[in-house]
């Protein structure tokens, strides 16, 4: 069984970015992200409705991290500090040494190579520090950009689930991608 320890919070740096803890101070930007229709278009989850909801979500994320059950990094520019996105390992299956990768950025930061800068360091953390054996990513099959991101980092398509995800009165298909440690 995988033994995880996310204490102290593992800060990660890249050329332009700092991946760090998400705190209450990020509530406004985190709300902007989770309530943005463009950013949430292929996430197939409800849009955030209030800052209070986001504050509860931040508490939930913090508890998950302290319980060593999941980890979410807030993405900031080194020369900014404000939250511009998030990247996470969630749905961790400790018994299978497997976790799911998720990522999102505010639209004004898209297509600048930022997520491509964060992902290699996060994968490295997942495989070498967390000792994961496989990292999965679930996408809406219409999400061409996310597929491109995953293929860029050599994720392979593992499965296609038909109408397995119910959201807002509709059933959505899911593509599962994964990357193995070796
Ligand atoms: C998915 C997302 C994180 C990509 O982040 P990003 O920083 O813009 O991606 P990058 O700039 O690193 O680009 C990665 C690849 O995707 C391509 N790409 C990025 N945006 C694109 C766009 N709008 N159209 C076409 N290709 C695009 C890039 O060309 C790049 O490929 P390349 O290096 O071979 O040229 C961002 O679009 C986002 O936050 N989307 C909303 C949230 C979301 O859907 N998350 C994923 C859920 S599964």
Identify the CATH class of the domain at 12-134: Alpha Beta
Q: How would the global form be characterised?
A: globular
**Unreliably modeled segments:** none
Element order, helices and strands? EEHHEEEHEHEE
Description:
The protein contains four helices and eight strands. The protein has helices at residues 27-34, 51-66, 114-129, 144-152, and strands at 12-13, 17-20, 71-77, 83-93, 98-105, 134-139, 156-167, 170-180. The longest helix is centred in the first third of the chain and has 16 residues, at 51-66. The protein has a domain at 12-134: Aminopeptidase (3-Layer(aba) Sandwich), CATH 3.40.630.30. A hairpin with a 2-residue loop joins strand 7 (156-167) and strand 8 (170-180). It has an eight-stranded mixed beta sheet, sandwiched between helices. It has 182 residues and is an alpha+beta fold. The mean pLDDT is 97. The two termini are 19 Å apart.
Keywords for this entry:
182 residues; Aminopeptidase; globular; eight-stranded mixed β-sheet; alpha+beta; binds coenzyme A
Outline:
The protein is 27% helix and 34% strand. The chain has a domain at 12-134: Gcn5-related N-acetyltransferase (GNAT) (Aminopeptidase, 3-Layer(aba) Sandwich), CATH 3.40.630.30. It has 182 residues and is of the alpha+beta class.
